Amino acid sequence: MAKKQNTGTTNDEENLNTAPEAQTTSSEGTTNANDPSNSNPIDQVGDRFEEYNDQLVEHDIPNAVSDKNAKETDHESAQYLENYKICFYNEAKDTLKEYNSIQNRISTTLAKDAAIVRTEVDSSVTFYQDLVTALTAATAAIKAAKLKSNAADDAASIVDDARFDSTYSEEYKALKEGVATFDTEVDAIVKKADEVRDTADNAVEAAVKVHGIAGFSNVDGLQPAGENMKNGVNLLQVNINGNVSSSLEKKTLAQGELTTALENTSQSDHNLAMAAITVVGLEETSEFVQTPADPKPNMTLDDISKKVEETFLNQQ
């Protein structure tokens, strides 16, 4: 910075200059040598630059650096929060995708299958109950027929035995004389009676077996099982549907928070860039004003502006 030079004055002259009202006389009148307006204009400019540079170095630049450091901290926090919100959003998205997959591939299909099974079980139970009713009636009819076949077989046996009973020898002889085919027809009746009895016995046995199989199958027991399965699947479907709705809400919330975080990061990028170029601008200005009459080679205000612009671009 330009400094006032020693003029080499004598003690007498110094004494005169230190007089309370040091004055000089010219053809235009008397002037005050201590009046700042009468000092060298170059010295005045140098003093103003020096004062301005002191303000820059002692206050403006430290404050700008402190603000830049704070903006860097804010920017790091914004980036950390953004990364956290990205993870939160991805987690919510994956959870929704998982529950959607369960809903589409399992719960919806399973619920429909359970409803179909329940319908088929109800139909089978109805058929089974009708079958049991029919078997009960058939068994009763078969047993009644068995009794009648037994009676017919007993009657045929009596007729058959009577032919060889001496008590009825005269009657038997008269019948044979009256009906040439009497023995043949009696034999046929006896045989038919035996066949009817055997058929009735087989029918009764078959009816008892079928009735036993129907009872052993316990189709009625399927109805509670089918109901329990349907209720269980319905509970699963309700649970999955609820989780899908909840996951969708969380994904929407996460998307909103992520959007806000991205906007905050963008704003912090801008704030940090502005703080950085402020520091560079003040530092370059301080360096420039320290040598106003002898700036750095090729350094102009345009050069400072370009350097500030480069700093801004490097912050992006």
Compose a concise summary of this entry.
The chain is mainly alpha-helical.
How would you explain this protein's 3D organization?
This protein is an all-alpha fold and 316 residues long. It has one domain: Helix Hairpins (Orthogonal Bundle), CATH 1.10.287. Helix content is 82%, strand content 3%. It has a two-stranded antiparallel sheet with strand order 1-2. Strand 1 and strand 2 form a beta hairpin. Helix 2 packs antiparallel against helix 5. The longest helix is centred in the first third of the chain and has 122 residues, at 41-162. It starts with 10 loop residues before the first helix and ends with a helix. Mean pLDDT is 76; it is low at 1-31.
Work out the helix count. Answer: 6
Overall structural class, as computed from helix and strand content, comes to mainly alpha
Query: Quick one: CATH class?
Result: Mainly Alpha
What is the rounded distance between the termini?
A: 37 Å
- Cα-based radius of gyration, to the nearest Å: 61 Å
Q: Report the strand count.
A: 2
CATH-derived topology: Helix Hairpins
Helical content stands at: over 70%
Order of helices and strands: HEEHHHHH
Total of domains: 1
Strand order, sheet with most strands: 1-2
Give the low-confidence spans: 1-31
**What best-fitting shape do the alpha-carbon axes yield?**
rod-shaped
So, CATH architecture?
A: Orthogonal Bundle
Beta content: under 5%
* Most strands sheet: 2 strands, antiparallel
What is the residue-mean pLDDT, rounded to a whole number? 76
